[in-house]
Amino acid sequence: xxxxxxxxxxxxxxxxxxxxxxxxxxxxxxxxxxxxxxxxxxxxxxxxxxxxxxxxxxxxxxxxxxxxxxxxxxxxxxxxxxxxxxxxxxxxxxxxxxxxxxxxxxxxxxxxxxxxxxxxxxxxxxxxxxxxxxxxxxxxxxxxxxxxxxxxxxxxxxxxxxxxxxxxxxxxxxxxxxxxxxxxxxxxxxxxxxxxxxxxxxxxxxxxxxxxxxxxxxxxxxxxxxxxxxxxxxxxxxxxxxxxxxxxxxxxxxxxxxxxxxxxxxxxxxxxxxxxxxxxxxxxxxxxxxxxxxxxxxxxxxxxxxxxxxxxxxxxxxxxxxxxxxxxxxxxxxxxxxxxxxxxxxxxxxxxxxxxxxxxxxxxxxxxxxxxxxxxxxxxxxxxxxxxxxxxxxxxxxxxxxxxxxxxxxxxxxxxxxxxxxxxxxxxxxxxxxxxxxxxxxxxxxxxxxxxxxxxxxxxxxxxxxxxxxxxxxxxxxxxxxxxxxxxxxxxxxxxxxxxxxxxxxxxxxxxxxxxxxxxxxxxx
Length: 525
Fold this sequence. Notes:
The structure is a single chain. By secondary structure, the chain is an alpha+beta fold. It folds into 4 domains: about 140 residues, no CATH class; about 120 residues, no CATH class; about 110 residues, no CATH class; about 80 residues, Maltose phosphorylase, domain 3, CATH 2.60.420. About 35% of the residues lie in helices and about 15% in strands. It has 15 helices and 21 strands. The strands form 7 sheets. The protein has a 5-stranded antiparallel sheet with strand order 1-16-17-18-21. Strands 14-15-19-20 form a 4-stranded mixed sheet. A 3-stranded parallel sheet has the order 4-5-6. The longest helix is centred in the middle third of the chain and has 22 residues. The protein is globular and about 65 Å long. The N terminus is likely disordered.
């Protein structure tokens, strides 16, 4: 946040880029039904630009900072921030920020900026794949492949706790691979004060050290994130024509997915849960599957397996149903970090005891889309962005917050139960995912932008004019705007446009030619 007094200087000031943000280089949303959302979109870019830094004492000179401390950076914050930077890769250093971590963690280059948790959620491969889909940048994939960064990080997460010390890492890693999955901690998982370990304490009657019960469970999200990484590494290898590597990581993916569905899926609840780490040999789990090993604390982390493609049709339907259920994740502001029926759910948010986090909201939204649940994904996204807009206007200071209350348009409260103070403001940071990425991909509905295959899939569901101008994907720059049953497209190069209506009706496929044209969609008139 901005300094409050003359004696409280802005620690970022020496590193901020001096040039002004040129908004003409950014995509320009069209959304006549929600003009305040468009206003917040531009505000998010403005705040994010204030966290683009340049310095000579880091391996990567220009990068985007999470917005907490200029001396420290976080892996999963930066990965998720890259998911909106992909809309302006020629302006915002999204993947360049990821290079910072590759250089520090895997090349062991010295840095004045320290990585806080090296074993934060390992999302690099997922983000790099999404960046490729947006930009079609094969050279970037070759750079990653030649240096082996994604494979190195996949392996690092299996041995993180045994890694040799790195002076540029602040906190010793905790992630450890076991035959059944991974042990981890709340802070390293990113879900700092989550109650996920409580049942393990009750079950084993062991008094754990550190954060309550966290070392007594196997964490489903890290297992799913590693599966997601393996899947994306395999896809990248396939693009580059590396058949052996593709087969290797497809095999790893199948192995991890099999663990998720064998041990972490609870058929009775239709939900993924963490697994109790009992003081017994792993082989006994063969005779202890199902509810008797489940650590039933229902959190949004259970949508990571869905994002990784681990679900069958039945499992996906069960998870999608809970996205709309007020007793689970369909709260007034959707996607609380802890399901609302849980006894420790806090209506004020209390960080990870119910707070609505833009990064996990984005993750769960993309998980639903993997299985075609666009209606509920888009509806939840619109309610989330609407709450962020209302909070911006109704709460002082007028800003974008780190995390939001699940029960109303206001910021969430801090971690400690006795602390009713609001969370950080000016947090773009990953909170820009709401006003930027969710707005473009879900509120407007451009849910698939595939540069390598030159196609866009758009679910039109807004009244009035809607669309995007100055959208850059790969070598293409296009304006795409719908009004009254017709879509006006102006594009620098040809591409395919796939359009459906609000409920998926009226599938239209167009090959859009270079130049300006109107496409007739009779069903929308």
